[in-house]
Amino acid sequence: MFSPWYGWSGRRDPENHCCINVATYGPGSRFTMTDRGRSALRRSADTFEVGPSRLHWTGTQLIIDINEWGAPPMVTPVRGQIILTPQAVTGTEVLLTPDAAHLWRPFAPTCHIAVNLTQGHAWEGHGYFDANFGSRALEQDFDFWTWGRFPMQDRALCIYDATRRDGTTLDLAVEIDSTGTVTETTAPPRTRFARSLWQVRRETRADAGTVPRQRLNMLDAPFYSRSLVETRINGETTTGVHEALDLRRFRQPLLKPMLAVRVPRRADWSFTD
After folding, report:
1. d(CA 60, CA 86)
2. Backbone phi, then psi, for 6, in 5-degree steps?
3. I want to staple 70 with a disulfide (CB 3.0 to 4.6 A). Which of 24, 28, 74, 173 is the partner?
């Protein structure tokens, strides 16, 4: 999605620019995203491999085997396994643009996750799994968006707000219960809160009189912020994962060389099995 090498290539051959991105937070945190060539890609009905790392769906669990290298300045191995066990899997597909050029899939908004990575990240807890799909570049159709996934008392609440380049907006709030049933709902208005360290504008939904606040900075870039954010929605206080994406900044030509430092290109790969 954000590979500078794919952008420079003219976006003609996505299979020649594949990545598995890993970001960890806190002590020993690492960021890995290596742009790899077509020879590093293998796919089947239940397995997705990019070079030395892979994702495998067993039918009940998503097994993620990681074997990557951290980006500068922490160029060290990032290895281990993540096991994600969904409480339920949804079949919901959300159009982010009316022509379906961009889609969002909340595959498993509530999961159990077990993490065991070499940097000392070994824990079990609450997680989620979703994905975006698109046939055009994000910056071609969007100026800005925010997304949030907030655990509630008996459900998960996902919020997707976007400003498209044609001036239209997306204002979406959905609830997903323990059975995987997805229901569109009404959430309180968009409410701004403090900008990120790179001064990316941030907002999410909040009850009147509530100002959302950051609890943990997770990932900060000139065009992107990911953090844990506390807010109050329909009378319930919750802390969830929040992201803000400024695609006007991402369109700036100087940004891609900056990204290339963190996203190296490795075109050649040979599988040994």
Report:
1. 7
2. -65, -40
3. 74
pTM above 0.70, yes or no: yes
Which residue's structure tokens are 């802390």?
239
Q: CA of 147: how far to CAs of 25, 159, 168, in Å?
A: 19, 5, 17
81-99: pLDDT as tens digits: 999 999 999 999 999 999 9
Spatial distance between the Cα atoms of 175 and 114, rounded to a whole number of angstroms: 24
- Whether omega for the bond prior to residue 106 falls within 30 degrees of 0, making it cis, is no
| pLDDT at residue 73, rounded to an integer | 83
> Is the CA virtual torsion 141, 132, 96, 258 positive or negative?
negative
Residue 183 token pair: 């229901």
CB 229 within 8 A of CB 214: yes
User: Could you give phi then psi for residue 213, rounded to 5 degrees?
Assistant: -145, 145
Of 49, 51, 47, 41, residue with least CA distance to 61: 47
Nearest partner of 148 among 64, 55, 214, judged by Cα: 214
265: which 2 tokens?
């290109």
| Residue range 117-169, pLDDT digits in tens | 988 889 999 999 999 999 999 999 999 999 999 999 989 999 999 999 999 99
pLDDT of residue 195: 97
Identity of the amino acid at 150: F
6: enclosing H helix or E strand: helix 4-8
| The token pair that represents 65 in the structure block | 């085997």
- Residue 27's DSSP bridge partners are none
Are 227 and 213 contacting, i.e. CB atoms less than 8 angstroms apart?
Answer: no
Let me know if 241 is exposed, middle or buried by CB neighbors in 10 A (0-12, 13-18, 19+).
Answer: middle
Of 101, 105, 103, 94, the residue nearest 131 (C-alpha): 105
> Rounded CA gap, 201 and 230, in Å?
16
